[in-house]
From TrEMBL:
Subcellular location field: Cytoplasm
Record-given protein name: Amine oxidase domain-containing protein
Cofactor(s) listed: FAD
Alphabetized GO MF terms: polyamine oxidase activity
PANTHER family: FLAVIN MONOAMINE OXIDASE, PEROXISOMAL N(1)-ACETYL-SPERMINE_SPERMIDINE OXIDASE
Lineage summary: Eukaryota, Viridiplantae, Streptophyta, Embryophyta, Tracheophyta
A GO CC term attached to the entry: cytoplasm
Length: 495
């Protein structure tokens, strides 16, 4: 009689889930009976390449953060996804020809901008190197602000406090999009020293990030990935289960009421889904160490807004936006809505593109999802007008028929916060949590005596202690959990 293969069910067809499936299938194809259930109608999860006004754009993951040692880079290069003839987002790398404009339209002296931005980077580098003075508080926000105060005390007669504040805040706003923290004071300062980045260039993927996902999926036998299958509840057996040969220890209940039995379930849904009430149920409920780690870690909203400039208008330069921090001050433009006021930049997605992009984080990112297209366009127009000196200078023959700014014809935005399958964008180590919580996220269940049963395993970006929040963190977590299963069965004494 042929022995039954252990049944592995992977929940989620994003980077972590598909990496785990790819690894299990390509390394041990005969060992497992493998299925991936994905609630959405596409694979990729927070990787989602799209198109806007003829350009290739990314709604989610955008950058390979450092090509040195990145597995995502290795795959993209291997499958020839790094070159293409269709123009793509940031095909020319980070824009380095931009101007920093103060609210009201004054182009700031590059020296002023660079001294404050260098101060900012030095402070963040200090935090990441772990060299913090003993009396620092728990949050990144106050550490940064103290750094700015100390700088001021030793650099009198600079560009003026309002301008320095505006440029410093611009850097903070960029950090908010990097981390997804609404308020940098919620970001755990001590944990910054554990975060790791790859060396080398940061690049985008010419043929789209989704190509990497499609490559992983293409190795799996047809029928392995089931789309539109939303898991509602996972029933497991903390006492070990699986002793009765006919009855696999885990039962996965789908939204349509059907059930799938499994020996091992790999949960890869986002931390946001695990945090949300009713996002994913477990019966019995998850042990307290897991629930508490889920509760303590941070998971914020980051969204991208693409804006198409009306045909025939002049090129818009890359603009970093230094907003006045004091309401009612001379340069404060009252018409600019609050949800635009913590946006760090408006940039063409590559030099010469008619598609502009801004990133939003936190409350502003959540608000962006609720607004109508007209409200967004009107808020963007007010902002472009409020920072319009650059445009006025550049377009003497202006024909847009609107103030000093350009006209936006239409917009496209991501909506990660309100999407029930994500409930946000990526994780961060919040004040009150630590890197240990990321390790706890990765702990398989049951823990304790029945540990080897590996009924529920956890992968996904929020389970990686040093590369959380990234595609490569998700990738590494998928490899880790696949290896855990492969190792479990390669050691026959554990069977
Ligand atoms: C706007 C934005 C920009 C980003 N930029 C970058 C970047 O530049 N570089 C970078 O490295 N990373 C970036 N990231 C982060 C990166 O996209 C993620 O870290 C990574 O893709 C997460 O992969 P994952 O497999 O852990 O989770 P996910 O991609 O969330 O996959 C989980 C899957 O589970 C599915 N699912 C959810 N609930 C259920 C259910 N009940 N039943 C079945 N399936 C379910 C979801 O539909 C999803 O497909 C960005 C993310 C966002 C949102």
């Amino acid at each position: 009689m042929v022995a039954k293969k252990p049944r592995v069910l992977i929940v989620g067809g994003g980077m972590a889930g598909l990496t785990a499936a790819h690894r299990l299938y390509t390394t041990a194809s005969d060992l497992f009976d493998l299925t991936v259930v994905e609630a959405g109608n596409r694979i990729g999860g927070r990787i989602f390449t799209s198109e806007f006004a003829g350009d290739r754009v990314e709604m989610g993951a955008t950058w390979i953060h450092g090509i040195g040692g990145s597995p995502v880079y290795d795959i993209a290069r291997k499958i020839h996804a790094l070159d293409d003839s269709t123009p793509w987002e940031r095909m020319d790398g980070y824009p380095d020809d931009g101007v920093t404009v103060a609210e009201g339209g004054v182009v700031l002296d590059p020296l002023t901008v660079s001294s404050i931005s260098t101060l900012y980077r030095t402070l963040m580098d200090t935090a990441r190197a772990g060299g913090l003075p003993a009396n620092t508080g728990p949050g990144v926000g106050s550490f940064l602000r103290k750094g700015l105060q100390a700088y001021r005390a030793s650099h009198r007669g600079g560009a003026g406090e309002a301008v320095e504040d505006a440029v410093f805040a611009m850097n903070e706003n960029t950090e908010r999009t990097y981390t997804s923290a609404d308020d940098l004071e919620e970001l755990n300062l001590a944990a910054e020293s554990e975060y790791r980045e790859f060396p080398g260039e940061q690049i985008t993927i010419a043929r789209g990030y989704s190509r990497v996902i499609e490559h992983l999926a293409s190795a799996l036998p047809p029928g392995t990935i089931r789309l539109g299958r939303k898991v509602q509840r996972i029933e497991w057996s903390p006492d070990g289960g699986g002793t009765a040969p006919a009855e696999p220890p885990v039962k996965v209940i789908l939204e349509d009421g059907s059930a799938m039995a499994a020996d091992h379930v790999v949960v890869t849904v986002s931390l946001g889904v695990l945090k949300a009430k009713g996002g994913m149920e477990f019966n019995p409920s998850l042990p307290s160490f897991k629930r508490e780690a889920i509760g303590r870690l941070g998971f914020g909203v980051v969204n991208k807004l693409f804006m198409e400039v009306e045909e025939g208008e002049d090129e818009v330069p890359s603009m970093e936006l230094a907003f006045e921090q004091e309401e009612g001050s001379k340069r404060h433009v009252a018409k600019i809505p609050w949800w635009m006021r913590r946006t760090a930049s408006i940039c063409p997605i590559y030099g010469g593109s008619r598609v502009l992009l801004s990133w939003f984080a936190g409350k502003e990112a959540a608000e962006l999802e609720k607004l109508s297209e007209e409200e967004i366009i009107s808020g963007v127009h007010a902002t472009l007008d409020g920072f319009s000196a650059v445009k006025v200078d550049r377009r003497c023959n202006g024909s847009a028929g609107r103030g000093g700014g350009v006209t936006i014809a239409r917009v496209m935005r991501s909506g990660w916060g309100s999407d029930p399958l994500f409930q946000g964008s990526y994780s961060y180590v919040a004040v009150g949590s630590s890197g240990d919580d990321l390790d706890l996220m990765a702990e398989p269940l049951p823990s304790g005596g029945a540990r080897m049963a590996l009924q529920i395993l956890f992968a996904g970006e929020a389970t990686h202690r040093t590369h959380y929040s990234t595609t490569h963190g998700a990738y590494f977590s998928g490899i880790r959990e696949a290896n855990r299963l492969i190792q479990r069965y390669s050691n026959s004494s554990n069977n």
